[in-house]
Amino acid sequence: MIWSREMARTARLLLVATLLAGCAAPPTPEPSASPSPSATPANPDAAAARLVARKFVAAWRGGRYERMAQLLAPADRDRSTPEAIIGLLRQFDELAGVTRIVGQAGAPIRSSAQSASSSEGPVPAFEVPIGLIFETDRFGTYAVRRALVVTEGITGWEVRWSPSLLFPALGDRDTLALRRSPPRRGRIVAVGGAVFAQTRDDGKRVYPQEWLAGQTIGYVAPVTAEELPTLPATADYVVGEAMGRSGLEQGAEELLRGTPRAVLVAVPPIGDPVALLDRPMVPGADLTITIRPDLQATAEAALAPYSDAATAVVDPKSGDVWALASAPRFNPHAMTLGTTLAGQPLAAPSAGARFNKAAMAAYPAGSSFKPFTLLAALKTGVATPTTRMSCYGTWTYSGFTFHNYKDHTLGGSVSLEEAMAFSCNTTYMPLSIRVWDADQLALPDLVGQFGFGQSTGIAHLADAPGILPDARYFKTTKRGGGNFSPYGPFDQIQLAIGQGSFLGTPLQLANAYAAFGNGGKLWVPRIVIQAALPNGEIVESNRPRLMRQVDIAPEHLAYLAKTLRAVITLSYGTAHRAFAGFPIAVAGKSGTAETGTPRPDAWFPAYAPIGDAEIAVATVLVHVKLATGGTDAAPLVRRVMSRYFFP
Q: Of 89, 124, 417, 502, which residue is least crowded by CB atoms under 10 Å?
């Protein structure tokens, strides 16, 4: 059932009414012809007392504690002092995290009370039933019902104050304090049972897999006294408590940490504190994650020779993330213990080593982006599987000359799969202009459908959106000269080969290529399957979730698969040597992206097998000397796929 604000308000009012009913006296007999003074509208004393009570409750509701103090009997103000009363109420608001107070005053009941002056005897008084509901961030809803005593004083009716109006156990000289107890932090465990993170009995957070998936798992560090004031007060962190700082440790902090026990206590001048409100501890939940240690280890080993690289591996059938590898590797113990579990010293890691490049670092994709240009051409009808174009060493457009890699050429008439295998810029650049002439939005819109320029939506793990340089992007982003200008044909040419302002992450490329292989299903990558408490209660469950079905005809995806297969099967295909003899039908595309330096980024995203994709992998080697996607990145993708298909 979904409650509206009006329904919630009605429920609060009903609760107040119930509280007031609980404060009320039992029914009295029918009055005689000469009724005694009672709580009737005709009784001016009762009306005056009720008015004062209503003002008192209204001031309490609104947090106007100075006004509350003004309505108190002078002797009570002298005994407790307005400053002490106001301080107590504000302290309760702060420690409980009061966000809203709802309250009402009922009908007065005649009584007598001791005068505010000790030298006098009983004086006329009324007991006014009041109900208060405190909505708090820390303890939920706290409801009270009390009999507010209102006495007749020299200047009129006055409220008698006692801290017991707030809590029966609260004494006149008591103060409030908050006691907090952090729960045991939950574990991070792979589907197969491998434990990636856990808390030892001595309270130390340890990472049994050491280096494996270090950037993805992340690390914790103690909360410092300096940062404590910057954290949400109701989160109840204490100095020295472990808090996630990166990776899943940070992204799933609320699940892993649980809920600390919080106890509001009355602290008397002498004696032991008395518990007033108690929020029970909820232990941290264990996360079950999709990372496959075998594939993760293989991906990391493949990247080991490189100082800056990343690989993402996903399941095309569900979006499950099987590996996120970054070079250099990172051992979370470097930030916690300072040594491995075996006691070997660990040097302080650089910020780059801690960075999850597979999900958070975005790079130009180079020619690994040509498949999107092909799909846009097929969708707009400017090309078909029978289309033939030239693949000369250079191509000139509007006075500017573009080049193939080392000006290589296939001649004046090649098929689109041959041009894909050879990675002909001079084929796919003019093809993008054909698309531009047919529909200026077709290419960037299609790229957007495959998830670029936006977060992948992965839960509990930070990722980068990258940059999709489309018309909207150039409305808000200045060019190099400091001016705005709209998306144009030169931007289209650059986007066609993953250059210009475009940036994408390995996770985005792997996810997009997974969609190539699964019929156009773009999944939201999933890394956390569930979170469960130690007693087995599931507090979060994440099923595979489809972001969208990309609007591409099945026959177009089938032809794309043929062109990506040619990259491997044709003798001049850029990944022919890397996958020679591989028995599984892999479809992939190399990319050698210009970076503005002599060292390009080498890409190879791929999926396999064609027809029923089971795995998608994207690897990027950053600023690699004398490297290409086909010669350097593709062999690493093969290693990961070999581990999957031939364990």
A: 124
